[in-house]
């Protein structure tokens, strides 16, 4: 399907690669004007060149943990495309830590990206949405909000917080006809997952595939399809939800 997001103006964080880049591509395909922010300048520029859609696409290099960077980005986006109607909080990072040796700074570095940035970006997008009485926000959480893996502390805590933020935000802005949902991917073939497997025993990848009901991981485009649905008016009565796209992984008991 295409055209579901025609004339929408969608902001996407962490859009240079992986799931974020797939969301950028999908939103363009569905007719939206798209603006993305990412720390990775070179990958962002490469995506711009690849998609070759100057009139419908904007990239700003910046850090989602910085309120100033988010403000410059949203101002530039508004200047190019007008009022913001959608936001996807996708930027995120893994964290591998031990609860005893982890420092406060390390904790804050993870929570700034994986949780606080979603609120900071929403703070930029919401005034337009409230003024126009419409909008959709999608927060990319993770199945780690439901079940997790040793050594992934505190990624799982931050992603659980993001699901909680989604619920609360849905209540705050619902009266303005703004919807807020979380989308929780399972294993998806990106840099993040590559990094995860490289840290572990090489046999782990096959073990993980073996417990997936469909014996495979997601492609970023499959996650982007779900995001496009949640952004679109086809999901007009879906808010405060946490949609799980994990190929059935969390439906399965051990054994
Ligand atoms: N890949 C998976 O299996 C998986 C599973 C569940 C959830 N997720 C979540 O999906 C989202 C996307 O992950 P991915 O797998 O595509 O990872 P990725 O590392 O390929 O892409 C993440 C993007 O976010 C950007 N980014 C990170 N920190 C940033 C910051 N401070 N400011 C601006 N940009 C920043 C990175 O530069 C990168 O382009 C993340 O929130 C991640 O937690 C991924």
CATH topology: Rossmann fold
Q: Which descriptor suits the 3D outline?
A: globular
Biggest sheet statistics:
7 strands, parallel
Compute the number of helices.
Answer: 8
Distance between the termini: 39 Å
Number of domains: 1
Sheet-strand content, in percent, reads 5-15%
Mean pLDDT comes to 96
What is the CATH superfamily? NAD(P)-binding Rossmann-like Domain
Please give the order of strands in the largest beta sheet.
Answer: 3-2-1-4-5-6-7
Radius of gyration: 18 Å
The ordered string of helix (H) and strand (E) elements is: EHEHEHEHEHEHHHE
By CATH, the architecture is named 3-Layer(aba) Sandwich
In terms of per-residue confidence, which ranges show pLDDT below 50 for 5 or more consecutive residues?
A: none
How many E strands? 7
Could you tell me which ligands this complex binds, including any ions or cofactors? nicotinamide-adenine-dinucleotide
CATH domain class: Alpha Beta
Summarize the structure.
This protein is an alpha/beta fold. It has a seven-stranded parallel sheet, sandwiched between helices.
């Amino acid at each position: 399907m295409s055209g579901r997001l025609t004339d929408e103006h969608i902001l996407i964080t962490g859009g240079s690669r992986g799931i974020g880049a797939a969301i950028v591509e999908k939103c363009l395909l569905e007719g939206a004007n798209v603006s993305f922010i990412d720390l990775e300048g070179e990958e962002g520029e490469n995506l711009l060149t690849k998609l070759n859609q100057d009139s419908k696409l904007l990239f700003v290099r910046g850090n989602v943990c910085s309120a100033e960077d988010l403000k410059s980005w949203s101002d530039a986006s508004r200047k190019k495309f007008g009022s913001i109607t959608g936001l996807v909080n996708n930027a995120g990072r893994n964290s591998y830590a031990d609860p005893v040796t982890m420092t406060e700074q390390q904790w804050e570095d993870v929570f700034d990206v994986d949780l606080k940035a979603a609120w900071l970006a929403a703070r930029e997008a919401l005034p337009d949405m409230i003024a126009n009485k419409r909008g959709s926000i999608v927060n990319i959480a993770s199945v780690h909000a439901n079940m997790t893996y040793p050594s992934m502390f505190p990624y799982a805590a931050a992603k659980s917080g993001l699901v909680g933020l989604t619920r609360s935000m849905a209540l705050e802005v619902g009266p303005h006809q703004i919807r807020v949902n979380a989308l929780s991917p399972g294993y998806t073939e990106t840099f993040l997952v590559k990094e995860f497997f490289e840290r572990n025993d090489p046999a782990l990848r096959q073990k993980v595939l073996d417990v997936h009901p469909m014996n495979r991981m997601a492609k970023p485009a499959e996650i982007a399809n779900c995001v496009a649905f949640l952004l679109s008016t086809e999901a007009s009565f879906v808010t405060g939800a946490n949609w799980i796209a994990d190929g059935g992984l969390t439906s399965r008991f051990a054994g």
